[in-house]
Amino acid sequence: MPYRAVRRQPQISPLKPLRLLAAAAALLFLSTSAAGAIALHRLEWTFAAPDPQAVADNPDGSPGAPPSTFDLPLHWSTLEGSPLHRVALRLHFGVAAVPDQPWAVLLSHFSEGGRFSVNGKFIGAISAESNERHVAWHRPQLLTLDPALMVEGDNQILIETTYGPGLHELAGVEVGPLGELWNSYARAYFCDIVWTWTGATIATLAVLVFGALWLQRREPVPLFLAVASLCWLGYCAAWLTEVMPVGLRMGVELVALAGLAAFLAALSITLMRMSGLSRRREEWLIGLYASLGPAMALGTGLRAEPYLLLSWQPGLYLILAAATGVGLYRRTRGLGAPHPLALAGAAALLGGALLDMGGAVGLNAFGGAPFLNYMAPLMLVALAAPLIDGLIRTMHETEAARVELETRVREREQLLKRNFERLRESERVKVESQERQRIMQDMHDGLGSQLMSALMLVERGAVSNDQFAQILRESIDDMRLAIDALTAEDADLTASLGNLRFRMEPRLRAAGMELTWDARRLPEEIGLHPDVVLPILRIVQEALTNALKHSGARAVRVVLLVEGVGDARMLDIRIADNGAGISEERVGGRGLLNMRNRAQKIGAQLKVETAANVGTTVHLRFRIGPAVPNTRSQQTVLNTQAVIERARQE
Amino acid sequence: MSADQISIIIVEDEPEFRRRFAQIIDSEPTMRLAGVAANKREAQALIDREEFDVMLIDLGLPDGTGIDLIRNVSQRKPDVDIMVVTVFGDEQHVVSSIEAGATGYILKDSTPADVISCIRLLRAGGSPVSPVVARSVLRAIRSRMGGVATSSNTVPPRSANAENNPLSARETEILQLLAKGMSFNEIGEILGISPHTVTAHIKKIYRKLAVHSRGEAVYEASQMGLLKT
Description:
The complex is a heterodimer.
Chain A: H1 3-8, E1 11-13, H2 19-28, E2 38-40, E3 42-47, H3 52-57, E4 68-71, E5 74-78, E6 85-95, E7 103-110, E8 114-118, E9 121-126, E10 133-135, E11 141-145, E12 153-163, E13 166-177, H4 178-217, H5 220-240, E14 243-245, H6 249-274, H7 280-299, H8 305-332, H9 340-360, H10 371-460, H11 465-487, H12 493-510, E15 514-521, H13 530-551, E16 555-563, E17 570-577, H14 584-587, H15 590-602, E18 605-611, E19 615-623, H16 632-649
Chain B: E1 6-11, H1 15-26, E2 31-37, H2 40-49, E3 54-58, E4 60-61, E5 64-65, H3 67-76, E6 81-86, H4 91-100, E7 104-107, H5 112-123, H6 131-146, H7 169-179, H8 184-191, H9 195-212, H10 214-224
Parallel strand pairs in B: 1-2, 1-3, 3-6, 6-7
Antiparallel strand pairs in B: 4-5
């Protein structure tokens, strides 16, 4: 391969196949030679009928020049602005006998079209570069070969084609039975075209997924990944655009160049971010570097493109390798690092890129297979998987947290309810036991002791029938007082006092005593605790009974009133008779003592004024306080509901 | 038997009290004992058999509560005065008796004079009442009309349920004065009416309370097959 030719003429890169790697790749990706197929490794290159301008520029390319011989795979490039070149490519293959089944010619990664003949007989044509049309075939091409056209011994395949400016390649040519080559063709078609379509589909989905993630979380990583996916989508679109008007060529190639660059740059930044590194300066530098290539290609009208592929583009791979290396390093150190799957994806991508580069400089021969195309969709999936996994886990955790919170709230609610029930129960028990104690105390002090003393008197035989009846009557009276004070839920002192009058009046009248009862200045109701009502009733009854039994009075006057407001509200009761007064020996007697004790117990003031033959006045004053609605239990219920409500909200 | 004699039946399970009441009535020339019963079954037979003006009845009978009998008699013989005999004259017993249709009550240990005057008062169109019972009747009426708690402190304003309240303003006033412990005479003086009118008001109040509890009573009675429809 003459050095001179490289500079002046179509730039031709000779390849030095690395057989070992080629064999491995062949096994993996493209079966280069099926059992009965013949792989052609050598072609003769002849410039044919160049246009006048080309002849003027390149005297060497004139017709009739001896053909050049090249090994396959073959890469060459043409400077921008070059005219169309017409070439004839000849390949030879030998057969021992003319086969009886159909054969075919399989072209791998032949970027151009052309007219195909075998032994001078036309077998087919593929759209080729023209002044209006640019072709950049990425798909394999299969042409059937009628065995009738073949001869024993040497056969010649002729490809007459044209090519314009840009990069071109012909990776391999095989001839063989159609059935075998069809399999190779299908495999190659899948890898180069279908898989790229698949990559584009994955990229589209990834744009949606990462875009949605970014919209939801506003985190940078999904945004970078969405950008990377979008760039890959652009790259795929450019790759899959194989035939286009000449005017679009520059645009499509720029899209491919820029798409790949941005894809790699975004991936590098993503890997760094995933490693927990958020270095704005480095990120800007990466972006700047990535935009350098497309800018130069644009600036030079694609003239710089062939050089960029070998100088600038490897830089992008180095950046990605560096980002991957950092991630790997941080992972081994147990620091924040990308998911292993992401690192593996990046490594695979880099491997693919390395193979591509190797192919481009002729270090290996994988038939021009675009490994980057193969790896990129895997990389995207590898990046999406941990993110989606994380998202799903987060959702599970959120759900679990919600369920747990709800459970806790419910438990707390139950606890509160239980506590409240317990509290109320214990309060009820306490109230009941207080009530019981009160009734017991009452029985003991009142009815019990009265019956007991009556028993003593009867046993001593010291009482007459009348006296005995009197004692029993007093006992019953006492019990009635207790019932008056106890039966109503809210003991009403006004009505209870009224009842006392109602019961006592007939008895007093029967004894010839006039009772005046003045309750006009009493409120309609006085709600007091039975603990207080009962002693007051007893004091009044005792005073009336004393007047009845001992005073010999003709009249008793009872004046009841409530005066003052609020805390100073006082109950004032005067029981005055016009009898003989209390004699000296009776002043310290049991009846008066009882009244004083009862008054003292409830904190009431009791005054007894007595004068011989003038009468006795018992004066009771008791502070009853403001008339407060008795809604204690209701308030407790309300409070508990409020507490539960508050716990719920918290 | 004289036409203006008041005929009375006694339903009382305790022989001592039965004898005592029978004796009180026997010794009163204006009254006549039409029969005695010691339990519900006998009482029912007596009620079906005899014509009478007043029924004295103890609530606690060996074969059930006397409330059913009161309801039965007050429905079937509206002219009969029913008088409940009670040990304590406590709210619960008296008010439920009034709701069943009783128009009076008397304490078991009342003096013969009290018993006689009470029966006379009843026949004269009045009803005796103690302050605690007056208060209970007020509460019963209010809770029935307002449907609100019976608590004295949450009594709704009278105007709120004026159309539902069966009591006239005068009747309510009388009950309030009674609850304060005022006598019929005092109330009469305050309101400028006779004591007799006061007791007549009370009887009317009792009747209203009974009528207003009749909805349930009719239902219960028909359930027991007491009412022929």
